[in-house]
Design goal:
The structure holds two protein chains of two kinds. By secondary structure, chain A is an all-alpha fold. Chain A is 74% helix and 1% strand. The N terminus and C terminus of chain A are likely disordered. The chains are: A mainly alpha, B mainly alpha.
């Protein structure tokens, strides 16, 4: 009697135990790198940001309180970097959004060869960013750049111009390289959104007599709004990440005009070896990212289309 | 009506042409420059087609001595120089392939197990863990880079392949889990439930039932994780110091950032560096578009 009473319970325990073991085996390999190389360094960055840690100085690391943040607030180059990053986002975010929307609309329409075009649109994403940035640097080269030649041939300029040493053109050239690489993924996302629009909506709009443009506005745009918001947030995040084009094309110049936040941190870290200040910047960037991520998750819960995450 | 349709068709083709140009022209221009000699590259106005196409630059990458001799003969060494790092290019190819392959393999196995657990085994904390991994994807690289560099430096792993591999796994994994999760959630669980009733263990279900269904997504994440790791520059630049661990982007990026270097060689390296990505995308286009897009939006 006793035995039969215990049997199922033990089996249940055994089953629960095996489920836990399975879970651990499955999750540990996937999540360990994330915590060990992602969230642990993040915690370490907090420690760094409150520490005086400068390899160029003879002083040993010591607790510095908010000193690193104070030093940053007084650094005009840091303020400049923040402004430049904002400007860069103002240039690239609308460009990425509009271009990827246009591309997706084109790739969603029916015509001969559209399948090949879809593959083509993915290409820039696969090319190492350093390589595509190099191409843009060569385009705008002072001596033999294609752009100078075209401008002279079109009669827009008389002499060759050193575009990369003038602030605004340099900024736009970096932005161009950034946009070229960062449109394919948003394009795919919007394309997926367009393909998920039920045909009935268009038919209903047709019956109501809507013209092409109002059909776009009433059906496509409404359906895509949440996705567009995600694209917006994603592309503004990527402005915070931008590094490779700056390293290759301008190295932060002219006069620190294209020194975006990531490149500034890189310099603090590896030219000035000031790990404490670099840590403080990362915490500030993290705060900024947090705000954007909050917006991102708000965007996920918006509207009829739900991004399945 | 018919005329109208024709008009929109022409508009579509013009738009398609613009898009194709926008994407192909930079690729063409780099190839064009890589097929010219240094003198031709510096010609004003630039050649739109290589006047005497030759693949010397491609040979020079793998035989720097020949390149130096050639440039001395041409008398160009006075204002141009060949960055020493180009010598490391063959080694960098090996490094890049090793790093990207390990990252891909780890992503495949761990990502599959992880997203299977997150979507198919019911447990408290699945959602928080998933959101945490998404947050991991959205962290700016520079936020990780500073502390990661200090940690790696203090444990003496600087300038090793392992240090690059670890951080690449860290920021490809969230993307992998995201894609696999969306794909898995889009598939009904009926067959898997039936298998469980029949007494299959979780691992048997994963191997025999789930794996065959999610193959397209698996291919897609294999490609994306390989390519993200292959093209990554920022971390590789920070963590590598010598030929022992430098990757292709590091060689090209550091050569390009120096003034007055031989452009032809860099263009040839660039063309070689973008070839694998282009070949992979063209071969696996169906899996890529289906795997990345399918189920992303419902």
């Amino acid at each position: 009697m006793l035995k039969t009473g215990r049997e199922p319970r033990r089996r249940l325990e055994c089953k629960v135990a095996s489920k836990t073991v399975t879970l651990l085996i499955c999750l540990i390999p996937a999540l360990t790198p994330l915590f060990l190389f992602g969230f642990y360094p993040l915690a370490y960055a907090f420690y760094l940001s409150f520490t005086f840690y400068n390899l160029k100085s003879p002083i040993e690391p010591y607790f510095y309180g908010l000193g690193n943040y104070g030093d940053l607030a007084n650094d005009p180059v840091f303020i400049r970097a923040l402004q430049s990053t904002g400007l860069f986002a103002l240039i690239t975010v609308p460009l990425i959004t509009l271009i990827s929307l246009g591309q997706a609309l084109l790739l969603a329409s029916q015509f001969k060869g559209v399948k090949y075009l879809q593959v083509l649109a993915l290409l820039p994403w696969g090319i190492p960013l350093v390589v595509s940035s190099s191409v843009y640097r060569l385009f705008f080269d002072f001596n033999f750049g294609l752009f100078n030649d075209l401008m002279v041939k079109l009669g827009l300029i008389k002499q060759y111009v050193s575009w990369l040493s003038i602030p605004w053109p340099a900024m736009f050239i970096v932005a161009l390289a950034h946009v070229w690489v960062n449109t394919p993924l948003p394009t795919l996302l919007i394309l997926a959104g367009i393909q998920s629009i039920p045909k009935e909506l268009y038919e209903a709009a047709m019956i109501d007599g809507a013209k092409t443009f109002s059909r776009f506005r009433m059906v496509t745009w409404n359906w895509l709004r949440p996705i567009m918001l995600i694209v917006l947030v994603y592309s503004s995040l990527s402005a915070l990440w931008c590094f490779d084009p700056i390293y290759v094309i301008t190295a932060g110049g002219p006069a620190d005009f294209t020194k975006l936040i990531t490149f500034y941190t890189y310099e603090k870290m590896f030219s000035y070896l000031n790990f404490g200040q670099a840590g403080a910047i990362t915490i500030l960037v993290l705060g900024l990212t947090g705000l954007l991520i909050y917006a991102y998750f708000r965007a996920l819960r918006l509207g009829r289309v739900r991004l399945r995450v | 009506m018919a005329q109208n349709a024709k008009k929109t068709n022409i508009g579509l083709y013009i738009a398609a042409l613009v898009l194709a140009l926008w994407i192909l022209f930079p690729i063409y221009w780099m190839t064009n420059l890589s097929l010219q000699t240094e003198k031709e590259i510096y010609n004003v106005p630039p050649y739109y087609f290589p006047p005497n196409a030759n693949i010397n630059n491609y040979w020079f990458i793998f035989d720097i001595e020949a390149a130096v001799k050639y440039f001395l003969e041409q008398g160009m060494s006075l204002f141009l120089f060949i960055p020493g790092s180009i010598k490391e290019f063959p080694r960098a190819i090996v490094n890049s392939v090793i790093i990207a392959t390990v990252v891909m393999g780890y992503n495949l196995i761990a990502g599959m197990l992880g997203s299977f657990a997150l979507t198919r085994i019911r447990f408290k904390g699945a959602m928080p863990l998933f959101y945490l991994s998404i947050v991991g994807r959205l962290l700016p690289p520079v936020v990780i880079a500073v502390p990661y560099y200090v940690i790696i430096r203090s444990i003496g792993l600087l300038d090793t392949l392992l240090s690059v591999i670890m951080v690449h796994i860290m920021f490809t994994m969230p993307f992998t889990i995201w894609i696999l999760n969306t794909y898995l959630l889009g598939i009904p669980t009926d067959i898997e439930d039936a298998a469980r009733v029949d007494g299959y263990s979780y691992f048997e279900i994963l191997r025999k039932v789930t794996f065959p269904i999610i193959k397209p997504a698996i291919v897609a994440i294999a490609i994306t994780s390989f390519m993200i790791s292959y093209g990554e520059f920022f971390f590789a630049l920070l963590l590598t110091k010598t030929a022992a661990s430098r990757t292709i982007p590091v060689i090209i990026g550091s050569a390009m950032s120096e003034p007055r270097v031989v452009k032809g060689l860099i263009c040839a390296m660039g063309v070689l560096a973008m070839l694998p990505a282009m070949v992979i995308i063209i071969i696996f286009r169906r899996y890529l578009i289906r795997g990345l897009v399918a189920g992303a939006v419902k």
